[in-house]
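# nightly structure sweep
# worker-07 picked up a monomer target from the shared queue
# config: single-sequence mode, recycle default, output format = structure tokens
# input follows
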Amino acid sequence: MIRQPIFLHDFQSQPAAYRSDQGAILEWIAAAHAQAEITIQNPATEEEREVITRRLQQLVFRFGCSTDRIAPRAFTVAFMKMLLTGRRNEHMHNPIT
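# output follows
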């Protein structure tokens, strides 16, 4: 059996459908890590939970790429829009214009 070569061509760049600013993404990352840490540690008081949340916010904003280095971020998965905004709407399947 002789294999025929396959050629890929005619590539096109397509912009991602959804956008968010870096600050919102960093906040979401910090909140997700804080929630995970709270789940693991099971702190007794709201004050202890706030300490964990503040600590992780500080770490993410210190070591994450700052908003003056990355302005908007683009992504293609509508689910990420829901995660970043914290709400679901009837237009989740439609790109943001």
